[in-house]
Specification:
Length: 195
């Protein structure tokens, strides 16, 4: 099952979940390091898929709330290394940011300072459809309180491309999604990503 779980993140989480003793399920309801977190795009409809992300390793918060409908707002500028042109739209929402230009922690802090609930940082390699980067602290000893997630470059690119094609300022998403409760035949994975 290890080889299969490595190729299929949702199966990996399923195996992890059911290999834990019941007491640890009760005492550790949140995600742990190296686990996957899932979110679903609700609109626009052409990217209505369940996406896989990985939480930052040693900084940022966790999702204590499930957001059934929240905006995923692409940051402007995309790298979010300083003041944002669309910061007002990120307040109380989730930002989609692009890797590069500054540290993962710096990006997370910029989104936090603009009132974002969380940040999803997509790889800047648009052809990356399988390799997850481990997001770690930089050397500044700063902290961030909001959740920070890493998204594959292909997924981030396809979300941004869809929004541009539709002339939309944001997507509507549900996060986190518990994939273990979704029947396999209903799992809508992005067709460009091998799960």
């Amino acid at each position: 099952s290890g080889a299969v779980a490595g190729y299929f993140p949702f199966l990996r989480e399923f195996f992890l979940l059911f290999s834990l003793p019941l007491t640890s399920l009760r005492t550790h309801p949140g995600l742990r390091i190296h686990e996957y977190l899932y979110f679903q795009v609700l609109s626009p409809g052409d990217i209505r898929y369940i996406f896989t992300a990985t939480p930052a390793k040693d900084f940022g918060g966790v999702f204590n709330t499930r957001y059934d409908q929240i905006h995923l707002v692409p940051a402007d500028p995309p790298e979010a290394c300083g003041e944002l042109n669309n910061g007002v739209f990120i307040q109380d929402q989730i930002a989609l940011v692009e890797r590069g230009g500054c540290s993962f922690l710096s990006k997370t802090r910029v989104i936090q300072e603009h009132g974002g609930r969380a940040v999803i940082i997509a790889d800047n390699a648009y052809d990356n459809d399988s390799f997850y980067i481990e997001m770690i602290q930089d050397s500044t000893r700063r902290t961030a309180d909001i959740p920070a997630l890493f998204l594959l470059g292909r997924d981030g690119y396809m979300i941004r491309r869809s929004l541009e094609q539709h002339g939309l300022p944001w997507a509507v998403i549900s996060i986190p999604v518990n994939v273990t409760s979704i029947p396999t035949y209903e799992m809508m994975q992005p067709p460009w990503t091998f799960w």
